[in-house]
Amino acid sequence: MEFENLLTLIKTVSDSELTDFDYEENGTRIRLKKKKETVVVSGTSSNVPVMGLQTVQPLGQITESEAKMEKDIADGEPEGMLIKSPLVGTFYAAPAEDADPFVSVGDQVKKGQTLAIVEAMKLMNEIESDFDGKVAEIYVENGQAVEYGQPLFRIA
Q1: By the 8 A CB rule, do 103 and 94 touch?
Q2: Are residues 140 and 125 in contact, defined by beta-carbon separation less than 8 angstroms?
Q3: Please, what is the end-to-end C-alpha distance for the chain in angstroms?
Q4: What is the mean pLDDT of residues 116-139?
Q5: Which residue did the predictor score with more confidence, 61 or 8?
Q6: What is the mean pLDDT of residues 48-74?
Q7: What is the pLDDT of residue 50?
Q8: Cβ-count burial of 70 within 10 angstroms (0-12 exposed, 13-18 middle, 19+ buried)?
Q9: What is a single Pfam family found in this protein's UniProt entry (predicted)?
């Protein structure tokens, strides 16, 4: 198997819901396995840069959303629960251009409620709340590119 095809295969499996994949060709066997994880983190995030497909954050620089989080903590606001992007893509706050956003700051949300959409490779991935609470902060703008693990919402 050619190297480019192997990279495409790895990316496809990574972006899919598959957790296990086996492939054998001409005596060479490839086995890809991934653990399914929840990308909701409590408390503050680390300042470790996250490398994505679209942009790379240089060491020592913090993103706008990280700066907002640090300001929130310094101002003494409750930390709440962070909802982070489970993949690299484009953030959409509403189901369509002319529609109202799924949620706004101050809205009460229930576990399982759709908060936004992240588009990746022409697939629309709904971002759902993993707990009940109130939307305290929205860290990204509609149409903004987001990285894996980037904070999207703070639920208090």
Answers
A1: no
A2: no
A3: 49
A4: 91
A5: 8
A6: 50
A7: 44
A8: middle
A9: Biotin_lipoyl
Instruction: Tokens 């484009």: give the residue.
Output: 90
If you count them, how many residues does the chain have?
A: 156
Q: Could you state, in order of their start, the residue ranges of all structural domains in the chain? A: 3-33, 40-155
Residue 48, both tokens: 């470790």
Backbone dihedral region for residue 126 (phi beyond 0: left; psi -120 to 50: alpha; all else: beta): beta
**Residue 49 three-state SS:** coil
- The class level of CATH for 40-155 reads mainly beta
Question: Which band of pLDDT confidence, cut at 50, 70 and 90, is reported for residue 74?
Answer: low
Determine contact, residues 120/17, Cβ cutoff 8 Å: no
74-81: average pLDDT: 62
Token look-up 């939307």 returns 135
For the record, the structure tokens of 37 come out as 């994880």
